[in-house]
């Protein structure tokens, strides 16, 4: 089946069973997501035959897009390409119960990572035909506009986008530490009339990368709150693997050289804790203050 019935909704990127308990295989609730941020909730325990067909088709209970959700719409979003779903985890679910003789299906909370490195929490009642409640836990930095001399900077609400789709880390129901690839701040040079006055009405010369020392790396976010921590990494991230106790992480990195690109695996200590109000992390054995 094609749960979204429209190729313009993007290709399917993730299919998850809506249960926080890996051993629970009876709910029959499946969630499919796409490369431009569409979702389809499917009940495979409720099938029917279409006209002139002998095949059983599961029921599509509801569909929605990230761009339709109020908790996300209040932010300026990048293009749909960067709001495509890279990974979905079931953070919590309330199991099916009986109230009187009427069955009540569960309420589900999901953690979603987009291609642009946004982390979004979604919560919805399976039985009710309402769109989910969305909350943005982490988003990429906004674009900075500047004049042609690049000395005066002005904030913009447009989000920066990464050089490549986000490499997600750990986001399951037991995880307290979320990891995505860092998105560097993009800059937009606006021409001015006399090199002193910025004219917002003139078309910009496009987005450019930062000329500062800002480099790529990992962004570590705690579900319990606090400021994100950044671990700089040289090269392009491909894969991440985190130990269940959040103490260690292995990162697969492509490092460009003059004639070829080599692949390396780096092992890092992630002892991220709140100690006397200061969050610290280690990178290859080096302690560093997050605020420094």
Describe this structure as you would to a colleague.
By secondary structure, this protein is mainly beta. It has a domain at 1-139. Helix content is 1%, strand content 48%. The protein contains 1 helix and 23 strands. It has one helix spanning 70-73, and strands at residues 12-17, 29-34, 38-49, 56-65, 85-93, 97-99, 102-104, 107-114, 119-125, 133-138, 142-146, 153-159, 177-181, 187-189, 207-208, 217-222, 229-232, 236-242, 248-256, 261-269, 273-275, 278-283, 286-289. The chain has a 4-stranded antiparallel beta sheet with strand order 1-2-3-4, with no helix packed on it. The protein has a 4-stranded antiparallel beta sheet with strand order 5-8-9-10. A hairpin with a 4-residue loop joins strand 19 and strand 20 (261-269). The longest helix has 4 residues, at 70-73. It is globular. 28% of the residues are buried. Mean pLDDT is 76; it is low at 198-204 and 272-292.
Give the secondary structure arrangement, pairings included.
Layout: E1 12-17, E2 29-34, E3 38-49, E4 56-65, H1 70-73, E5 85-93, E6 97-99, E7 102-104, E8 107-114, E9 119-125, E10 133-138, E11 142-146, E12 153-159, E13 177-181, E14 187-189, E15 207-208, E16 217-222, E17 229-232, E18 236-242, E19 248-256, E20 261-269, E21 273-275, E22 278-283, E23 286-289
Parallel strand pairs: 11-14
Antiparallel strand pairs: 1-2, 2-3, 3-4, 5-8, 6-7, 8-9, 9-10, 11-12, 13-16, 14-15, 16-17, 18-19, 19-20, 21-22, 22-23
